[in-house]
Amino acid sequence: MRAQGGFSYVVVMFLVAVSAVVAVRALEDTLMTERRNKEAELLWRGMAYRKAIAQYYQNSPGAAKGYPAELANLLHDTRLVRPTRPLRKLYLDPMTEAEWVVLRDESGAAIGVRSTSQVRPIKQAGFPPELQHFTHAQRYSDWTFVFKPQQPTAQE
């Protein structure tokens, strides 16, 4: 009868070990899902900045086009008769919950943003054409959301 007691103990220990492995796996899956969601949010917010900068640039009055001096200028563009709001609010970088790094041109105007995160991205391919340079990026900070106007093509 005493041998039975040892067997029950081994079964209980086995069940505890299996439960621990299942719990760790569930936690890993939850953390990966959370990171994928943050990555998707990073893409959405970065593209929102890129589109807002493009709208600001394209709606510049007159022939001379210009970028915003600061990201805050995207919140309320008063250069036109009818003010516009290219961006509804200034978003934080979802990977770090900190401010974005503002990318500037040679005149100091804001042309884009990037994350400060040094973590390797999960997504490595399948980006839209304007973000093809994200393919095989080593860090989220390599994902630069920059608006560059298309150069006019030479007519033949």
Topology:
Layout lengths: L1 H57 L42 E4 L5 E5 L29 E3 L10
Antiparallel strand pairs: 1-2, 2-3
Key structural traits:
single chain; 3 strands; mainly alpha
Q: Could you explain how this protein is built, in words?
A:
- By secondary structure, the protein is mainly alpha-helical.
- It has one domain.
- The chain contains 1 helix and 3 strands; from the N terminus they run H-E-E-E.
- It is elongated and about 85 Å long.
Beta percentage is 5-15%
Q: Calculate the mean pLDDT score and round it.
A: 90
Number of helices: 1
Strand segment count = 3
Instruction: For the largest sheet, list the strands in their spatial order.
Output: 1-2-3
> Which regions have little confidence, pLDDT < 50, spanning 5+ residues?
none
Give the N-terminus to C-terminus distance in angstroms.
Answer: 97 Å
Task: Please compute the radius of gyration using only Cα atoms.
Answer: 25 Å
- Give the assembly state of these chains: single chain
Total tally of structural domains: 1
Classify the secondary structure makeup into a structural class.
Answer: mainly alpha
What general form does the structure show? Answer: elongated
- What pattern of helices and strands is seen along the backbone? HEEE
Helix content class: 25-40%
Largest sheet: 3 strands, antiparallel
Brief account:
37% of the residues lie in helices and 8% in strands. It is mainly alpha-helical. 19% of the residues are buried.
